[in-house]
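To the wet lab folks,

You asked to see what we're planning to order before we commit. Fair enough. Below is the target structure as tokens, and below that is the sequence we designed to fit it. If anything looks off to you, flag it before the synthesis order goes out.
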């Protein structure tokens, strides 16, 4: 409960740090990989926030709620099973005939 209150103060004054986010995940018994799997995200989409030093608020709130549920011995796994969040589409994915989403025109190859 103390860490949850600390996070609320952090949100009031700015972004949640990546380290506080990891602390909440640990409290919930989750790794970044498992959290990403529950959220149907790529693990590197979450770990990339380490470079910024901050985590998006919506992820921080979810991690904090999961940690609080874990503290009270409430199993959150059935909730994610019931909700079945959809997998996020990777941004910048290439289209057929284009290299890595590069804006170049369609290449015509001579056979």
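Sequence we intend to order:
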């Amino acid at each position: 409960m103390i860490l949850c209150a600390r996070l609320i103060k952090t949100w009031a004054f700015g972004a949640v740090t990546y380290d506080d986010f990891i602390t909440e995940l640990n409290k919930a018994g989750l790794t970044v990989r498992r959290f990403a799997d529950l959220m149907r995200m790529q693990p590197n989409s979450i770990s990339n926030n380490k470079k910024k030093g901050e985590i998006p608020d919506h992820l921080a709130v979810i991690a904090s709620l999961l940690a609080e549920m874990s503290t009270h011995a409430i199993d959150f796994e059935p909730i994610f099973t019931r909700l079945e969040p959809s997998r996020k589409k990777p941004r910048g994915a290439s289209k057929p005939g284009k290299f890595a989403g590069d804006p170049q025109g369609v290449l015509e190859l001579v056979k």
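Structural context that might help your review: Strands lie at 16-17, 54-55. The chain has one domain: 2-83.

Thanks,
Computational group
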